[in-house]
Amino acid sequence: MMFQSRIVKIFLLVSAWTIVLTVLLIASQRFGHRPINSQQVLRSFSELTPEIHVPGNHSDARKDRKAVLGDFRNESKPRLPNCLIIGFSKCGTLALRGFLSLHPDIVSTLKEIRFFTLFYKKGLEWYRDQMPPSKQGQITIEKTPSYILSPEAIERIYEFNSSIKLIVIVRDPIVRLQSIYSHTFSDDPKSSKNPTFEEWCEGNPRSQRVLRTVDYAQHIQEVFQLFPKQNVLVLSEEDLEENPMGVMRQAEKFLGLKQSFSKEDFVYSKEKGFYCFNTSSPHYPEILDSVVLNRKTGCLGSGKGREHPDIDGRFLKGLVDVIQPYNVRLFRLIGKKFSWENFKDASR
Ligand SMILES: Nc1ncnc2c1ncn2[C@@H]1O[C@H](COP(=O)(O)OS(=O)(=O)O)[C@@H](OP(=O)(O)O)[C@H]1O
């Protein structure tokens, strides 16, 4: 009898323990922590930041996770530029930089920094401090149109980053001369003391002033001596003026960015004769820190679109004859042509 009751007791004890253990096991599966898989964590970070590589081994995974977390901590900070607009002045460089800044993956400097020409001694830390804050993966653009005129600056840019993307914009060379003339005498354009356009050109279509201004090829050649051609985009002011959207598409492709510009970003102003920023575009508020403009109209300031001087017919013909061979050399060098109004007859 005693033996039987002992067996029953043992049976009840074992059953009770089995029930307790089963309950604990179910509870731990339902509510307990699952082991964290570092690869999964990195993968979900990398979905947010597609440029981050998810490595195969654990020590790399740890390093990358550190980098990822670091980037998240310093999400927005000044970074050195990875694209420069290096020339040419009076060829629409400001409109180009401004329009590019509409892209959510581009930030740009408000001012021309002139680091590689004037302020090189200040060092890269200083240069970085001049940059607007950007997020990891965004492109920072600086534009200083005088860089292209200085072979030393081009060499310094190469030393700084030999795979940097460079953008050059050119314009009908005769219109560029007119634009520089108008800019030079903009304080008092009607003053009788101002030289005429022809006098300012030293009375000669072959003057040093003219030749210096119209020889785009010489400067672009210096760039091509150091940088691979696929890292240099050559655009035209005329295309930018007529079809900013088309030019932005070219730039997006060149910079390897997703398509983001839309026709609604730009609006044509009859009064200015240019496309301006569309103040109703959702991207418009984002550019206000990087472009000085008329906030009501979305157009660039009065320094753009000045009246150009008339040119005496014979002098103009002389300019066309002198400059045309320079254009031919340019088009051969860059492998494309621009149809410039002043040279329509010359190119036939
Ligand atoms: N959309 C738009 N808005 C305003 N301006 C435009 C635009 N597209 C091209 N342009 C032309 O840009 C010319 C000025 O060129 P830059 O900005 O390179 O000048 S600067 O070197 O920075 O001073 C300026 O030249 P001028 O007309 O001679 O003033 C403009 O014709």
CATH class: Alpha Beta
Radius of gyration: 31 Å
Assign the structural class, choosing from mainly alpha, mainly beta, alpha/beta, alpha+beta, or little secondary structure: alpha/beta
The total of beta strands comes to: 9
From the N-terminal CA to the C-terminal CA, the straight-line distance is 124 Å
CATH topology-level name: Rossmann fold
Query: Can you tell me the CATH superfamily?
Result: P-loop containing nucleotide triphosphate hydrolases
Strand order of the largest sheet: 3-5-2-6-7
Please count the helical segments: 14
Q: Give the distinct bound molecules.
A: 3'-phosphate-adenosine-5'-phosphate sulfate
Q: What proportion of the residues is helical, as a percent range? A: 40-55%
Biggest sheet statistics = 5 strands, parallel
SSE succession: HHHEEHEHEEHEHHHHEHHEEHH
Shape: elongated
Q: Taking all residues together, what is the mean pLDDT?
A: 87
User: Any guess at the CATH architecture?
Assistant: 3-Layer(aba) Sandwich
- Residue ranges: pLDDT <50 for 5 or more in a row? 31-57
- What portion of residues belong to β-strands? 5-15%
User: In the residues, how many domains can be counted?
Assistant: 1
Active site: 90 (for sulfotransferase activity)
InterPro entries: NST/OST, P-loop_NTPase, Sulfotransferase_dom
Protein name: Sulfotransferase domain-containing protein
Keywords: Disulfide bond, Glycoprotein, Transferase
